[in-house]
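Protocol step 4 of 6: structure prediction from sequence.
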Amino acid sequence: MEFDVDEMKALESLYSAILALKTTEELHLFFEDLCSRNELCSMLHRWQILELINEGKSYEEIIQELAPEESSIDVNCGEKDTKKGKGRNATKVSSTTISRVKACYNNPNGGYRIALGRLKGDTN
C-alpha cells in the first residue's frame, strides 16, 4: 500500500498511539473506539485465518474451523442476527481473504511473520 506524506505522518501517529498502550485491555478499549464492530471482526477473522494457515490447515479446513455449521462461509463474530436477516456484524471469510492472508503469510519479511515470531519469543 502506498500513502502520501501526510497520510504516513498520520499513520505513524496512530502506530505510536498503539505502541503506547500497555495491556490487552487498553488495546481492546482503543480498538473498540477506533473501529466499527465489522472492522474489528474483519481483523479478527484475518488473524484467525493466519493462525490456521500457520498450523498448516488447508482452505477447506479453515472454512470448517471458522464456519462449521454453515453451508456458506459467513461468520457472525458472536452477535445475534438482526430482524432484517443477516446481522449487520456478519462478515464473510471469503476465498479471497484466505488467499490474501496466505500471500502475506508467505512473505518472509511481512508483518504477519514478525508478529508470529514475536509471539513465539523471537526478539528480532
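Step 5 (inspection) to follow. Confidence is low (pLDDT under 50) at residues 70-75, 80-91.
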